[in-house]
Write a structure and sequence with these properties.
heterotetramer; A: alpha/beta; Glutaconate Coenzyme A-transferase; 8-stranded mixed sheet; 3-stranded antiparallel sheet; 11 strands; globular; C: alpha/beta; 10-stranded mixed sheet; 3-stranded mixed sheet
Chain lengths: ~220, ~220, ~220, ~220
Amino acid sequence: MKSKLLSAKEAVEKVKDGDAIMVGGFLAGGHPEHLVNALLETNSAKDLTVISNDTGTKDLSIFQLVKSGRVKRIFASYIGSNPETGRLMMSGEAEVKLFPQGTLAEKIRSGGAGLGGVLTPVGLGTIVEEGKEKLEIQGKEYLLEMPLKANVAFIKADKADEAGNLIIRGSSRNFNIVMATAADYVIAEVNEIVPIGEIEPNHVNVPGVLVNAIVKVG
Amino acid sequence: MKSKLLSAKEAVEKVKDGDAIMVGGFLAGGHPEHLVNALLETNSAKDLTVISNDTGTKDLSIFQLVKSGRVKRIFASYIGSNPETGRLMMSGEAEVKLFPQGTLAEKIRSGGAGLGGVLTPVGLGTIVEEGKEKLEIQGKEYLLEMPLKANVAFIKADKADEAGNLIIRGSSRNFNIVMATAADYVIAEVNEIVPIGEIEPNHVNVPGVLVNAIVKVG
Amino acid sequence: MDKRELIAKRIAKELKDGDVVNLGIGMPTMVANYIPEDVHVMLEAENGIMGVGPNASQEEESLNCIDAGGNYVTTVKGASYFDSAFSFSLIRGGHVDVTVLGALEVDEEGNVANWMIPGKKVPGMGGAMDLVVGAKKVILAMEHVSKNGAPKILRRCRLPLTATKVAKTIVTDMAVIDVVPNKGLVLKEIAPGFTLEDVQNQTEAHLIVSPNLKVMEV
Amino acid sequence: MDKRELIAKRIAKELKDGDVVNLGIGMPTMVANYIPEDVHVMLEAENGIMGVGPNASQEEESLNCIDAGGNYVTTVKGASYFDSAFSFSLIRGGHVDVTVLGALEVDEEGNVANWMIPGKKVPGMGGAMDLVVGAKKVILAMEHVSKNGAPKILRRCRLPLTATKVAKTIVTDMAVIDVVPNKGLVLKEIAPGFTLEDVQNQTEAHLIVSPNLKVMEV
């Protein structure tokens, strides 16, 4: 089988004009800093859609990506830590769609799981419900939220084996696992790579079959 | 805090007439054999609804439960390994509802996650769609499947700490994790109990807050 | 006593042994400092930790263990980690007993506004909408009036809502108020140094005085 | 050569290096024995294993490592375990490249019936409906005619369907047939010893003969 071990530059070549990219992480936790940097420095794709919980903080590469003028749409749940996203939203330079955090996670999971969307009570009676279908099920009302998919996902893990099986420790799992299921091409930034067979099957957080490229950092 | 360590007899006392119970396991793998036995031997609750992937094989206690005359409804995906379920279905002694395996898992997850149901393409154009609503979403058709919850869940794990954090090894995870989220009272049958703090937080498959009772076997 | 300290201390008394509790950023986080010794709660961070402990010392700091505010934290014995989809299944599914959040406005129906000020501040809702809809009990930690002295407890919220009919208890520097469905706001406790008139004067909403009105004790 | 062996051997040639493959119970499982040495596939068991290996020896037998048929199995290097909800996210979400299943009937539209015979056999669909809808390629492993000599490749299925328009390739002891959407059944290969007439005589459906018709090689 073809090796999945690539340089950051090689891996991010997959991103093309108009692509939707998912970026894992919750603030700095589990954020694929080096992949986003490589995208900024070695790839000029524009008109991007970025799907990310919070679009990071000003210390992270995703802040620079948002600021680069190459992003036309952002799907997120919290942008208070990245004032640049707020500015783009206010000025209309980018379309920014905000979703409740659990809804965002579930929309991505739904996309990756071949489901038709999410039926959630969250957002009812708020501006989140605007333009969305509502369904009454067993006497309760739910909002229908569409599934989300992407062309490329940038995710972060602690350890990978050469088959792409990933271990993501602690609170860094956040959006990285669902995003690995919901993109056509999944790139994992990892701190450590071990031979196949060295990760205990019970401890795998993302099965290698979901991972297309492994990029080692540090 | 009150101890969660109970005998099987004490734990299954929670099951009352008319209750819906979920039983984890895939055939003999991850099946809470001793809890079901305790239900048979020490509790006389009847008119039960049983939610289980396959209602087991004739070597398992769930086979006896199905045969006991105390079960009026069964939700399952596969009953070929338990001819007694098939007999009840044919004779009309129990209502047996069959769902695609992925749909059943997702219905239970949906119930546990506070979602309004499942939108799946699986079952379209088959008798599974009978009596169910269909939705067109982004040009594709989906079946709306209702969430499932239960009064009590019987699940099986390898190891618990005294707080109820569970480790479930190998292919025994199957329905045990989603069922732990979808019942009012969750009983875990475990092979081993260790003090709190002895399970590495990264290896927990079911957080202890979901588990109401721990029953040690063997 | 500092206003915020008073509020946090009073809220700490609302927590029961065994509760699963999510504390919002800011004042709600302070609640953790005042939980009685005989009350053991599990603090949950919606980015993926059950069992958050005190902040990490500099040597312990790890990006794999941050809370929802991005702070480096430790975990307690019996902690576990999970991804965002599972975390919000716990939250939305009713597996969190108490959530404590700040609020910009609350009203007689228990409607809450805490995530945006149109034209001014649009940080996104993060996990707040999921938390107030999903948690069994929503406690609002808020100063009784705004910095300009304007009431924040209103007849009807004017800012965009976070959710409708979700607040259960409002704890301010002046009072403890329960939201009773189909009835309104019941004033239960008044902070030392204030009169009933003081409280009503600073409150736009109508307050129903509890027959057991007490002085707030912390 | 035994009919079943012929079918399994021929199907093994359809698998590509890197494929994720789910093999159904019975004849499909035999395919694993004939996969060429230079083709590395990951066998998935829908009850929660990625990377199923050969059957376990008696000493290795563990209820924590069974396949979807309930057999004790081993795992290969690079394997991982997951629960049923995640497993069917992989399946329904299009992360399985090939599924090989038996069928009672298949028709010109690629409709498949393989899960029940009304009034006779209602074992439940198990994971079959999810697999045929979700897998990128559905290969049917079936004897060309029933035990009574009745055709199983029909104009229109008569038994209750498993799913509509899903079969891609049909491999029998007489032929290899592709289902081409909006066109019909294209006969690609005929097993040694049979003529085109033999095959058409045993097939109710109309067969379009491929311009590249070949002898089936295994």
